[in-house]
Design brief:
By secondary structure, the chain is an all-alpha fold. The chain is about 75% helix and about 0% strand. It starts with a helix and ends with a helix.
């Protein structure tokens, strides 16, 4: 009896379930038909000309030709009509100039191409690529605002850096220290100009802007997010632009401050540095940072970690990942994020112009101070020192060292300065991070 009841219930369920499903689908179909009919009635109420006009209003051409009142950017600030129209066209032209410099002139394409393309995307009207929910806007929040990308970049830089030239000739660290004069000198100048009413920057703003003088993008982003978050975008653009334009900015300064005879000075090769020295150096730097200037430990810690992985020689896979995959991926994301601040509403404002001017002054003064220190050391040292390597004291690694080498070889093709210039160059990386730590400690 129980067996028959169970068989009956199973048979009933086999019949009822499809019937219920059909009824549900039928009900949903009726609802869908009603909704589709309502939508159809709405769409049918528009004529072809009206639909064509609506399409025209959603094109970029219309947005450029007919800027609107009351449009706001991602920060909630109003975007002027000029910024919506000619401003965007000007910035698009600037991004193509960056492409030209990167591809035709070879000026740091790894930086300029992502930055330029980020700027191109940022100036597309109506797309909201850099706003909340836009993919570049989310990249900016995920890696720039929380300082993650600069830290990861420093790990990669540490893994790519050989501190051997600095350890072989420690006195070249003075050249890296001298190049930081541009940072602190510009701080004083920016405060003075603000007092005179030329610019309207607070002391913290001026301190953050002066870091651009180190030509160190990651450090600039790190310090700006702490001291001047409102100026972060413009400062990041300035710092990375000057890093990429090192081959343009530095040579005239170097040549103006040196004679052809000085540029032809050949430096002697120093002793070979042992592997133990190279391995102990990052640990020593980190311990000193912890004891003296812990505020700079995020940057110094990332740098020394990457270098320790490199010099330990037992984790080659990690070292190669830091040198290649990690830093390449982060460079793409960071370049696009920084380029997003080339949007007309962010870039074509007086504050950005002031930051660009002060940043250029800081970088130029840092370059000049390094060269002058090189000339002084050459006079006082028993061993010849080519003053050109002083320009590498700014922390644009390894661009500044390559530029010093190229300018030297223009005078004498047999005068190879690259490894000698790497000493002050890597010292400059540590120097700019230390300067950032000093600012954070003070403010």
């Amino acid at each position: 009896m129980k067996k028959r009841v169970i068989q009956f219930l199973l048979a009933l369920s086999v019949v009822m379930i499809p019937i219920g499903a059909i009824a549900t689908v039928s009900h949903m179909s009726e609802g869908a038909k009603v909704e589709a009919k309502a939508q159809k009635e709405v769409y049918e109420s528009k004529g072809f000309g009206e639909m064509l006009y609506n399409f025209w209003k959603q094109t970029g051409i219309y947005a450029f030709l007919h800027p609107q009142e009351g449009v706001k950017n991602a920060k909630g600030d109003e975007v002027t009509k000029f910024q919506q129209s000619f401003g965007r066209l000007i910035m698009i032209g600037i991004t193509f100039l960056l492409f030209y410099l990167a591809i035709a002139k070879g000026f740091e394409p790894l930086l300029l191409i992502p930055i330029g393309f980020g700027g191109l995307l940022a100036n597309i009207p109506l797309a909201n690529i850099i706003g909340d929910g836009g993919f570049i806007g989310e990249l900016f929040k995920a890696g720039i605002e929380n300082e993650l990308f600069p830290i990861l970049i420093f790990m990669g830089v540490g893994a790519m850096t050989d501190f051997g030239p600095l350890l072989a000739n420690p006195k070249t660290a003075l050249l890296g220290a001298a190049a930081q004069f541009g940072i602190f000198g510009t701080l004083v100048g920016a405060v003075a100009l603000s007092q005179l009413g030329v610019f309207d920057f607070s002391l913290q703003d001026a301190a953050a802007i002066s870091i651009i003088g180190g030509a160190d993008g990651p450090t600039t982003v790190f310090i700006a997010s702490k001291l001047a978050p409102d100026l972060l975008g413009a400062m990041a653009v300035a710092a990375y632009s000057y890093m990429a334009l090192v081959p343009v900015i530095q040579p005239p300064i170097m040549k103006a401050l040196t004679t052809p005879e000085e540029r032809r000075i050949k430096m002697t090769t120093k002793r070979k540095v042992s592997q133990l020295e190279k391995m102990l150096f990052p640990l020593t730097v980190l311990v000193l940072t912890i004891l003296i200037l812990p505020e700079s430990s995020p940057l110094i810690g990332a740098l020394t970690f990457g270098n320790f992985v490199r010099e330990s020689k037992v984790v080659e896979r990690l070292s190669k990942t830091l040198q290649n995959e990690l830093i390449n991926i982060v460079t793409i994301f960071l370049g696009l994020s920084v380029g997003s601040k080339l949007a007309a509403e962010y870039f074509l404002v007086p504050e950005t112009l002031g930051i660009l001017i002060l940043g250029l002054v800081a970088f130029s003064v840092g370059t000049a101070a390094g060269v002058i220190m090189g000339k002084i050391m050459n006079r006082l040292s028993k061993e010849p020192i080519n003053p050109l390597i002083g320009a590498a004291g700014v922390s644009a690694v390894p661009m500044a060292a390559r530029v010093a080498n190229r300018v030297g070889m223009e005078e004498d093709p047999t005068n190879v300065l690259l490894m000698h210039a790497m000493g002050p160059n890597v010292a400059g990386v540590i120097g700019s991070a230390v300067a950032a730590g000093v600012y954070l400690s003070i403010f």
